[in-house]
Structure formats: C-alpha cells, structure tokens
Amino acid sequence: MALHASPFQLFYFLVEWFVLQVLRLFQGPSPRTEESVQGKVVVITGANSGLGKYVADEMAKRGATVVMACRNMVEGQKALEEIKRNSGSTTVELSELDLSDVSSIRKCAASLKSKYPTIDILINNAGISLDCAERRFTKDGFELHLGTNHLGHFLLTNLLLDNIKKASSGRIITVSSTAAVMSNLNIDNLMLENSGLGLGNTMPYNNSKLANALFSKELGKRLNGTRVKTYSVCPGLARSNIFQHYSTTGKISMGLGKYTFFLPVNKAGDIILFCALAKELSISSGKMYRFGRQFSSIEPLLTDHLATALWEKSEQLVGIQ
Ligand SMILES: NC(=O)c1ccc[n+]([C@@H]2O[C@H](COP(=O)([O-])OP(=O)(O)OC[C@H]3O[C@@H](n4cnc5c(N)ncnc54)[C@H](OP(=O)(O)O)[C@@H]3O)[C@@H](O)[C@H]2O)c1
C-alpha cells in the first residue's frame, strides 16, 4: 500500500515551498511566540545541535525544565553548559537517548517517566539524513532513516504518553519536512528491500518524514478526548548540521544553499517553537504546519488509511502491541 504525489502536485508543492522559504528569509520575524513555559517540563530529542539546541535554549530562557535527550553525551554536555550560561537556567538536564537503538529508547523513557511524572511538551526533533548509496540499518535492523526518525520517536512517544496525558495541556511536536511530499512510502516495503538506492537518493529520508506526519496525524486522532494535542512541522531548510553525513557532492550542493536561501537556525527553530507554544493552535490536533501556517496541501497524502496502517505496522516492529 503506497500513496504518491502526482507530478503536478509535486511541482506545486516545490514551487510553493521555495517561494515561502525565500519570503521567510527576507521577512521580519518568524512566527515567534512569547508564551511562557514557566514550571513546565519540556523534553527535546537531538537537543545538542541545530534546531533542537536553539529550541532547548529558548525553552530554558522562558522558564521550563528542559530535558535534552541526546545520543552524543560529550556534545550534549557542551550544549547543556552553553544553554545554562545563555539562559541563566538551572533546570536544564541531559538524558542519553539513541533513537536507532530500541533498548536505549526504553532505558531513556523509563528514567524520564520516573523522574518527571508530568511531561508537558515532547518535541520529537532529532533526525538523520543521508544521500544514500546503499541502505543502512539501526541496531535492531530497521532501515536507518525510518528506524531513527520515525520508529524511534514512535516508541519514545508511546512510552511517555501516560506522563504527557497528565499535563494540563500537553503537546507533542514531531519535526517532519516538506521532503515528505517526495516520498514513496510503501507500507509493504518499509525497509526498502531491493530498492536499488544510488548516491544522491534521499528517498529513505523523505519516507521517514512522511511517516513523521502520518504518525502525528494518527496520534492526534487516538488522543481525541484527552488534553494532549499533536502537531507535525516542517521548519524550512536551515543552516544546521543535518547535511553533515552527505557525500561530498551532496555537501557542496547543500553548502551553496546554506550560504544563499537557507534559513538561519533561529528562524527555523521559531517555526518549531510556534507549534509547541502558540495558543491559537490549541484547538487543532494532528495537522502539519510550516512557516507558521497549516500545510493544507499535504493533506491528500496523509490519508486515514495510510496513517492507521503505518501505526499498526510500527507497533509490530517496535513490539508495543
Ligand atoms: N535543517 C534543515 O534544513 C531541515 C529541514 C527540514 C526538516 N529538518 C528536520 O529538523 C530536525 C532537526 O535537524 P537539524 O536541522 O537541527 O539537524 P542537526 O543539526 O543535524 O541536528 C540533528 C540532531 O539529531 C540527532 N540525532 C541524529 N541521530 C540520532 C539518534 N540515532 N539518536 C538520537 N539523536 C540523534 C543529532 O545528534 P548527533 O549530534 O549525535 O548526530 C542532532 O542532535 C530533523 O528532524 C530534520 O529532519 C531539518
């Protein structure tokens, strides 16, 4: 079972995206929100670098207890100290989390659950992106992008859900990408067997980003009637480290973008913060946002059928049925 954008839809998505990206670069502030998070507990994955680090810093400045869930504890410690210095906060902590390893996710979730009975905001931000010449795998044998970006966050979120439900108005933000529109996600071949990937092929990443948006939609539906809302978000192309694992050719082409139309990290990070905090979003759940607006034209790709099928398959894969 798969759903692809038509060539016309794809062309429309990409032109619209490019125009918005350039407009946002030259416009004034991103959809910044000044909401306070005083006393709230915010968990952010991949918070030692790029957008996650910026969001962690902003949350700390606004008074939250921030948990930076990071794979690289050395870089995590450096980022933690920098954020504490910047924000003056003493309530920033580090927790070890490797999203490409189910046992690490379970360990991290168990420790967070016992330490923080209530979690107000979970930001599923961490991500890996390669321009693959061949398939790579997580420790548990999942295709690396789907395993890390989607299944890792799927498991973490489900394990933390009881604690998030205790929040007075919980939010779960999953960082996706407009790259989702170029996905060819096939529920019957999630691990891309015999897919003949070549260099420059970002399909595994695109698929994981569509999976992020489908997960957020299905989760929103399943949480209907609770106080928890879900959002997926494309932050726009940003000057972070996301392309560091690309081939040399990939790095050169992305490097050109980085110094031209890519967004500064703070502008892209503000787009994530908007979904985490903006009061005006509190009436909706399960939708995808970009540039501070609902990304309505992606809706035809986020079918109920695909979202439910992905959820059920993900449960089987990570063993939480
Ligand atoms: N930057 C863009 O242009 C752009 C565009 C659209 C969407 N996004 C999305 O934005 C999110 C943030 O990315 P970014 O741009 O800030 O890139 P980044 O600077 O590379 O940050 C990515 C973070 O994810 C972490 N991570 C990667 N694999 C992990 C794993 N197995 N377990 C735990 N953490 C892991 C990285 O940790 P390490 O330091 O240990 O590698 C890093 O902290 C991603 O979901 C990305 O897909 C970015």
Automatic annotation (TrEMBL):
CDD domains on file: retinol-DH_like_SDR_c_like
Protein name in UniProt: Retinol dehydrogenase 12
Signal peptide bounds: 1-25
Keywords: Oxidoreductase, Signal
GO MF term set: oxidoreductase activity
InterPro entries associated with the record: NAD(P)-bd_dom_sf, SDR_fam
Family that this chain belongs to: Belongs to the short-chain dehydrogenases/reductases (SDR) family.
Keyword Signal annotated: yes
SUPFAM superfamilies: NAD(P)-binding Rossmann-fold domains
Pfam family, one: adh_short
